[in-house]
Amino acid sequence: MKKLFPLFLVIIPFFFSAFQDNVDTDLDTAFNNSRKGVYWALSNVPENKLHLNHELISGNKLIAVVKLDIEINGIKVNSTGYSNSTEVSVKLYRSIDSLKNAGYLKNKRIKQPREE
C-alpha cells in the first residue's frame, strides 16, 4: 500500500487536468454559440416589434436561445449558448446610434417604446 501511494499522487493531477480540459472546451463552445446568437440578433433587429425570441438550431442541436428587447434609445440582447450540458448567457446593451454607426441598422426605422 505504501508503494501505491506515490503512484496515486502522480495519477490524480492528470485526472483532474483532463476533466478541466473537458470543462474548458464545453465552456468555450457554449460561449461561442452564445456569441453566434448575439450576432444573429444584431443582424435581425425588427423594425416594428419591441420583442423578439428566436432559437438557433444546427444539426438537430439547440445552439442558442436569443431574446431581443427594444428599449428607449437602445436594445438589450440576451443570448444563451449551449454545449452538451453547459450553458453560457451573455447580455448586451447597445444604443440605437451605436448600432447605426456600426452598420447593423442600415435604412431601418426602429419602433421605440413609449416613455411613461
Describe the protein in words.
- With 116 residues, the protein is of the alpha+beta class.
- It is elongated, with a radius of gyration of 21 Å.
- It has a 4-stranded antiparallel β-sheet with strand order 1-2-3-4.
- The longest helix is centred in the N-terminal third of the chain and has 40 residues.
- It is built from 2 helices and 4 strands; from the N terminus they run H-E-E-E-E-H.
Structural features:
alpha+beta, four-stranded antiparallel β-sheet, 4 strands, 2 helices, about 120 residues
Please give a quick description of this structure.
The chain has two helices and four strands. With 116 residues, the protein is an alpha+beta fold.
Residue stretches low in confidence (pLDDT < 50, at least 5 long) are none
Radius of gyration: 21 Å
Q: What spatial form do the alpha-carbon principal axes imply?
A: elongated
With helices defined by DSSP (H or I, 4 residues minimum), what is the helix count? Answer: 2
The spatial strand order of the largest sheet comes to 1-2-3-4
SSE diagram, text form:
Elements: H1 4-43, E1 51-58, E2 61-71, E3 74-83, E4 86-95, H2 96-102
Antiparallel strand pairs: 1-2, 2-3, 3-4
